[in-house]
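Subgroup meeting minutes
Present: P.N., E.W., G.H.
Scribe: E.W.

1. P.N. recapped why we're keeping a running log of single-chain structure predictions: easier to compare across weeks, and new members can see raw inputs and outputs side by side.
2. G.H. added today's entry (206 aa).
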Amino acid sequence: MRQTIDAAARARDPRVAQVSVGLSGTWSVVEIVRADGFVATDVRPLVRLNVSIVVEQNGRRETGTFGMGGRYLYDRLFEEQTWNRAVDEALRQALVNLDSVAAPAGEMTVLLGPGWPGIVLHPDGRYLAFGGNPAKVGTRVQDIPGIDGDRLVADIAAQAARGPGWVEYDITNPATGRVQTKMSFVQALDDLYLGCGVYKSLAARS
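Output recorded in log:
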């Protein structure tokens, strides 16, 4: 069977450089005898087939692996459609990896974090999107009680013009009713502003 799988995998794609096949199984018989004479017996086979395929192109090698099995006998794994499925999936994964492109590395700007409400702001101060409270869409920063809305919009515009960065301001926290300092990360998107904010006291804990 292993030779058959090896030949089938190599016939599918000339880039297949190595095929590994693992076949394992256990056989357990459990018998329960109670004091009243009741006897129960259970036979529990467990089999598994693993197929790993290495492909190579232009000096680059990638691997794909697929496994299957269950509490049945080997005959189900020996069925052609069963092991062919394992070969197809392992080869598919390997070829996907072979065409993959490395993800960018290094420092990156994160606009949104878990639980941080993202907003889209019009230059006139209107909220066009508000992740934390959709009811605020259409309202203005200038309408928020206890905040100098015009100054905040101007600060956001000034920071966005310089590049992505932080803007600090004092605002009433609706959860506590107290005026607290909040910091929002803002950046320009065409003629709009994107942002997300967090209270400094929460940011300090993280």
